[in-house]
Specification:
Layout lengths: L3 H19 L5 H14 L14 E4 H6 L25 E3 H11 L14 H18 L9 E5 L2 H15 L7 E3 L8 H11 L15 E2 L2 H6 L4 E5 L2
Parallel strand pairs: 3-6, 4-5, 4-6
Antiparallel strand pairs: 1-2
Helix pairs in contact: 1-2, 4-5
Length: about 230
């Protein structure tokens, strides 16, 4: 079994050994002082971080039953041959449930919680819900409904990977990324996108999806429902 304390000591001692032989003093007092300083300054650790689990809340299915979310969430990933990215039967975290219900009710929300706590779903699920409600009414026509603004393109690209997986078998909801790296011409944009997603785990995600706008030209002609961009 891996022992982090033992591993930390081995790394520390190995590094001290390297330093003490590379910068060796003939004067033994100086050499001893060097070793003492290295032992007290090279490493302080290892540190153990205990990560609490977040409290569970309702499932998407329960939010459908109580009227908060559209019944069409059941159809969102029904035709996928892979496990759902957003399963309706999986309990949400309690802070996700509360955020979703407040946003759906028309309130403004700030979500401040830990890494890995699903902050994206707090606003993504209500956005998808609005689009599904429009579909229920037969009003889901072209046009941007939501803009996701990120401080860096890398964050936007990371977030859109999750959305691609959710919507890969639901072409009615369209999305796209518009930033400094977005090509003007469709052919150029498709080549760039296929290179970017060449290593995705599902073959369908290695190419542009039918509901994914990838070029500036096409986004201007057919604005997607969800637009990813940055503040610039």
């Amino acid at each position: 079994m891996f022992n982090p304390a033992k591993a930390a000591d081995e790394i520390k001692n190995g590094y001290i050994g390297y330093i003490s032989t590379t910068f060796h003093f003939r004067n033994q007092n100086l050499q001893r002082k060097l070793l003492e300083e290295l032992n007290t300054t090279v490493s302080n650790g290892p540190f153990i971080e205990i990560k609490d689990s977040f409290r569970s809340g309702k499932t998407i299915e329960e939010l459908i039953v109580n009227g908060s979310l559209s019944p069409l969430f059941r159809e969102l990933e029904k035709d996928k041959k892979y496990p759902p990215k957003l399963p309706v039967s999986r309990p949400l975290y309690l802070h996700q449930e509360k955020a979703i219900e407040k946003i759906v009710a028309g309130e403004n929300v700030v979500v401040s919680t830990g890494t890995g706590s699903g902050k994206t779903d707090c606003f993504l699920i209500p956005v998808i819900n609005e689009l599904l409600r429009e579909k229920e009414k037969g009003q889901l026509n072209e046009g941007v409904r939501a803009i996701f603004i990120y401080p860096m393109n890398a964050l936007a690209n990371d977030q859109i990977k999750g959305l691609r997986e959710i919507l890969m078998a639901y072409p009615d909801i369209r999305f796209g990324v518009y930033n400094g790296g977005t090509e003007n011409k469709e052919a150029d944009a498709i080549k760039l996108y296929e290179a970017m997603y060449a290593n995705e785990k599902y073959p369908e995600l290695r190419k542009r999806l039918p509901n994914e706008e990838v070029s500036r030209d096409e986004m201007k002609k057919h604005p997607p429902h969800i637009l990813f961009t940055n503040y610039a």
